[in-house]
Amino acid sequence: MADEVILLDFWLSPFGSRIRIALAEKGIKYEYIEEDLRKNKSSLLLQMNPVHKKIPVLIHNGKPIAESLIAVQYIDEVWNDKSPLLPSDPYERSHARFWADYVDKKIYEVGRKLYTKKGEEQEAGKKELIEVFKLLEQELGDKTYFGGDKLGFVDIAFIPFYTWFKTYETFGNINIEKECPKILSWAKRCIKIESVSKSLPDQDKVYDFIVEIRKKLGIE
Amino acid sequence: MTTNQEEVKLLGATGSPFVCRVQIALKLKEIEYKFVEENLVNKSELLLKYNPIYKKVPVFVHNDKPIIESLVILEYIDEIWKQNPILPSDPYQRSLARFWSKFIDDKIVLASSKSVFTIDEKEREKHIEESTEALQILENELKGKFFGGEEINFVDIAAVFIAFWIPLVQDIADLQLFTDEKFPKLYNWSQEFLNHPVVKQNLPPRDPLFAFFKARYDGLLAASK
């Protein structure tokens, strides 16, 4: 039976990007369905993710998998014949899960403060984001990728946020390259990989979209 | 099945629902381990060394290698010790187990705690509403005796917080958040779960824990006056 793989996603979403990268790494053909988050939620989305009503949702032979990191692990387990995304050693795997979870908990929400808040809240957000990046920089160490010499789970979890750096830097008035040069060089290595570069939105498009959002929210 | 006790250590605190999850999993697989009770007010050097990022328990140490975050620890334990598996072998079922455990962590644990430990009435109402909604979703999801079917699994273990901690803290605030009228299936599940032979012997003593939370609650009330 031919595999039917669908990704319900929104071009901007760093979470959706993770799944796109994973699918590309494994060479899996899939149908991409764009869910326009500015419009009412589609019946497909509500049917496939009734609990959170959010993208991305991976649909494999009619069965939905929500939550990007869970979907990436699923992809790795089902298509286990090539390009492993998680390490084979259980301890290394738990290490990767921990750091991917750390990225998940810390970056999006904290980063959001930089372009939606002002004053003290924004300052606190800036400080926290830099701390998070510095910790990740420490974890990366001298490795080429978080996954070692190949792209791995943590790389996939983190790299989509690279397209948000311009947004964070402009609104947050921070210089990520200056604060965390290793993170920048890591990111540049990642985007040289085809499965990554073709899965990520353009940094300027992300920035323009956020400018629009801020206008709508009335943030000056 | 029995291992050299020195190789397997669990840094924990009696009363932590996250530590409890790990203890249940270890007991289910009959793994011998050394439990190190941590003083969370005065954290040990060992804890700070093994978990410098969050400085929290549980920390699971296997052959001197630390693993943190309870759900990550559960996956590790399941991968190393294959007897009495807690995660399904089918990838889709595994993704569902991971989804629901994450749901419990993201949507129920904090919201339900804040339903009790929040002074501002409007804020508290908001948390109660969130918790109720989340519990209802879980209620609708429960199909069998346990989330794992006939046997307890990853999700059941993650949900120990709902079975033991929510009833305990809601009593303190006289809150009727989790009741058998509101969530008959989930309530029934909680009774079956708490009576499971492995779970039963790994729950913390209720009275001292109640006293601990009551003191926190009273302290909160006093500070707001």
From TrEMBL, chain A:
This is glutathione transferase. Residues 3-83 form the GST N-terminal domain. Pfam families: GST_C, GST_N. It comes from the Eukaryota. Belongs to the GST superfamily. GO terms for cellular component: cytoplasm. GO terms for biological process: glutathione metabolic process. It catalyses: RX + glutathione = an S-substituted glutathione + a halide anion + H(+). GO terms for molecular function: glutathione transferase activity. SUPFAM superfamilies: GST C-terminal domain-like (SSF47616), Thioredoxin-like (SSF52833). Keywords: Transferase. Its EC number is 2.5.1.18. Residues 89-217 form the GST C-terminal domain.
Automatic annotation (TrEMBL), chain B:
It catalyses: RX + glutathione = an S-substituted glutathione + a halide anion + H(+). The keyword Transferase applies. Residues 6-85 form the GST N-terminal domain. InterPro entries: Glutathione-S-Trfase_C-like, Glutathione-S-Trfase_C_sf, Glutathione_S-Trfase, Glutathione_S-Trfase_N, GST_C, GST_C_Tau, Omega/Tau-like, Thioredoxin-like_sf. Its EC number is 2.5.1.18. GO terms for molecular function: glutathione transferase activity. GO terms for cellular component: cytoplasm. One of its GO terms (biological process) is glutathione metabolic process. It comes from the Eukaryota. It holds the Pfam family GST_C. PROSITE patterns: GST_CTER, GST_NTER. Residues 90-212 form the GST C-terminal domain. Keywords: Transferase. Belongs to the GST superfamily. Tau family. This is glutathione transferase.
